[in-house]
Design brief:
Layout: H1 2-11, E1 15-16, H2 19-22, E2 23-27, E3 32-35, E4 40-45, E5 51-55, E6 58-69, E7 78-85, E8 93-99, E9 108-114, E10 123-125, E11 136-142, E12 146-151, E13 154-160, E14 176-183, E15 203-218, E16 221-222, H3 227-231, H4 244-257, E17 258-261
Antiparallel strand pairs: 1-15, 2-5, 3-4, 4-15, 5-14, 6-11, 6-15, 7-8, 7-14, 8-9, 9-10, 10-17, 11-12, 12-13, 15-16
The structure holds 2-acetamido-2-deoxy-beta-D-glucopyranose.
Length: 298
């Protein structure tokens, strides 16, 4: 068992660790910093600007893990985004956005998936811990069949490929990994009621232990097309789905921590849950087991 895990471990990570090697600091000047020999990255936000970074590589499918410690104290009005995105007007995107709050009030984790430029597939959650005290792992599993959002390895959302009923799924456009910290006090906290307190600036978010177990895209092709490389890779994520315990955990999160679910938004889907609703162009709820009781957040 030990031997096996050592063996798998040695091949499982396409890229890990050093922020200098994996990311470019893309905006905010000195507000974005890589420290401790590439082990730690910090983003700052002050009144003049936020900051952000972007992966040097592009990926087409993979499992991406990042440990993040969110802005502590009064983080109302701030948004820390961690997402995958392709480029162009018909871009695909897979989003985690962490909406700050007053000290002691809960962050909201906002998730969304864009396919060919179209989003509107939001689900929002509270967390079962204070995300500002310690680092926690936020992961995106993206394969041909589904997208799984995980927090500390607990699935909070499963977005399915429903191409068989004519709905687009992000699977043709390579994506980069992005993160940024910015001010969005017109909507982030209690729908924009609570504004950023600039006397508390600069606001800081911390990143470490990045891992991409993923197919890297370069010169118009994926390195997963190479059978040699692919055979030497940990492929679990390529077919990853939820087992019984994963489904139990997902139900637990959805039941106790879900704040908003587009699938249950009666303003958008007056007929109720539109799963497999086949009208051309009609929105389709692609999420696994959406609980019908969750209504729109006020
Ligand atoms: C902030 O706290 C308030 C009060 O508990 C809550 O209603 C809201 O959902 C929290 N999160 C955000 C991002 O507004």
């Amino acid at each position: 068992m030990l031997l096996l895990s050592v063996f798998v471990g040695s091949f499982s990570v396409a890229s890990a660790g050093d922020f200098h090697q994996e990311f470019d600091l893309t905006w905010g000047d000195q507000r974005a910093q890589i420290l401790n020999g590439g082990e730690l990255l910090t983003l700052d936000l002050d009144k003049a600007s936020g900051s952000g970074f972007r992966s040097k590589r592009e990926y087409l499918f993979g499992r991406i893990d990042m440990q993040i410690k969110l802005v502590a104290g009064n983080s109302a009005g701030t948004v820390t985004a961690f997402y995958l995105s392709s480029e162009g007007p018909n871009h695909d995107e897979i989003d985690f956005e962490f909406l700050g709050n007053l000290s002691g009030d809960p962050y909201i984790v906002h998730t969304n998936v864009y396919c060919q430029g179209k989003g509107d597939r939001e689900q929002q959650f509270y967390l079962w811990f204070d995300p500002t005290q310690h680092f926690h792992t936020y992961s995106i599993v993206w394969n041909q069949h589904r997208i799984i959002f995980l927090v500390d390895n607990i699935p909070i959302r499963v977005f399915n490929n429903e191409e068989s009923i004519g709905v687009p799924f992000p699977r043709n456009q390579p994506m980069s990994i992005y993160s940024s910290l910015w001010d969005a006090d017109d909507w982030a906290t209690r729908g924009g009621l609570v504004k950023t307190d600039w006397s508390k600036a600069p606001f800081t978010a911390y990143y470490r232990n990045f891992k991409a177990n993923a197919c890297t895209w370069s010169n118009g092709k994926s390195d997963c097309a190479s059978q040699v490389l692919n055979a030497a890779r940990n492929n679990v994520w390529q077919t990853q789905a939820l087992d019984a315990s994963g489904r139990r955990r997902l139900r637990w999160v959805q039941r106790y921590f879900m704040v908003y679910n587009y699938c249950a938004d009666l303003k958008r889907f007056p007929q109720g849950r539109p799963r497999k609703f086949r009208l051309r162009g009609a929105p389709v709820c692609q999420d696994l087991h959406p609980p019908p009781h969750v209504q729109e957040a006020s």
